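Give me structure tokens for this 239-residue protein.
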Amino acid sequence: MQLRDFEVLTFDCYGTLIDWESGMLKALEPLTDRLEVELAPDAILEAHSFYESTQQAQTPTMRYPDILSVVYKRLAEAWGVAVSWEECERYGDSVRFWPAFPDSAEALGYLKEHYRLVILSNVDNRSFAASNEKLGVSFDAIYTAQDIGSYKPADANFSYMLEHLDKLGVAKEKILHTAESLFHDHQPANRHGLHSCWIHRRHAKEGFGATRDPGAMPHVDFRFRSMAELFEAHRAEGR
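Here you go.
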């Protein structure tokens, strides 16, 4: 199997193309700076991932900024810090400030010459539009949690994407789902029979950070540490 066997790359965005962990940690500073005991970054991210995924499962139609606002409130309660709802909402609006990984825009620009590019993201349309400006590429289709009414790893998100891509004439075997999160993306991709490419951004770190522990390791067809490694591997196949 080669990268050039595929016609469409479907992407998770946050954690894969956008550096959501550094964006989260920066936006959480008004809360974490008030803690009596300093927490390690991964401890903050793991707590965040628990409250985020729990809230997404309980309120699947809630917009992502509102999910984040509730997460901020839950973190404050867990850490014994009093916060206002206005402060929670400011955190909910922080997605637009999260930075892209340094290699994302260049890699996407190259890959756009060879594939149709699609987004499947746990976010709302307004937040993604702000992130898309940092990525510098026009995606061929964008499917968000707001469009679908649920959050990955729900099967509904992948069913929605596959149904819509089928209407665009894309066969499932020509799709390569490309993502960092084993929990949100690779496990459900396995359930739906999709080929997948793991962009292992956290390769130098322990644990799962802002994503959840998947439990069992899902199957992946390709594994790279960055988007830069992905597009260099594609170039190498051409040579």
